[in-house]
Amino acid sequence: MKFINTYIIVFTLLSITIFSMHQSKDIVASSAEEVCPINIGAKVPSVNVRDIDGEEINLRDITRDKKSILIFYRGGWCPYCNLHLSELQNIENEIVELGYKLIAVSIDKAGKLKESLQEHKLNYELYSDSKAEASRAFGIAFKVGDSQAEMLKSHNMDLEKSSGEQHHILPVPSVFIVDEEGKIKFEYVNPNYKERISGRLLLSAAKEIK
Question: Distance between CA 160 and CA 110 in Å, rounded?
Answer without folding.
Answer: 13
